[in-house]
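During the no-cost extension, the postdoctoral fellow (Dr. R.K.) reprocessed legacy sequence entries with the updated structure-token encoder. One reprocessed record is reproduced below for audit purposes.
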Amino acid sequence: MKTLFLLRHAKSSWKKPTLADFDRPLKGRGRKACKLMGAYLDGHGIKPHIILCSAAKRARQTLLEINGEWPLSVPTLFKESLYHASPITMLQHLRGLDDAIASAMIIGHNPGLEDLAYALTGSGDVEALEAMERKFPTAALAVLSAPIGTWRELGPGGARLDRFVQPKDL
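Re-encoded structure tokens follow.
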């Protein structure tokens, strides 16, 4: 069994229009959402074995801000290739993980992250499915489980959506 946590970066700022998209920071609302999500992750014992994080500033800040509430020491890989990555690119990263790793988190961007969640989900908790179908907002978390032995087996429809958590629900 493999568990996947897909976390969309928190709300970012458009305050400086001359700033490159890659370098946009979180805004206050995003930091607030991170605190809520970090407390949720900590309170529910969510501890991925590895984190794959987009190298974009807002994704890195999301991890940093969440970590304030979720004191976790986990190997983290910052990947430029996860910046606006397609679902296929994210899936390739996951399929490349060591099979000894039972759970992984991706902190990334839409539309790729949301598209990956939809592509992998074959079944799931009805309320979670309905919530995710309505919207995959910033700082939202999809928790998927896949009855597989190796990450290479992860594919379309092969996972179950166990939970979908949004900051507004916390």
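The mean pLDDT is 95. Helices lie at 28-43, 57-69, 87-95, 112-120, 126-134. The remaining legacy entries will be reprocessed before the final report is submitted.
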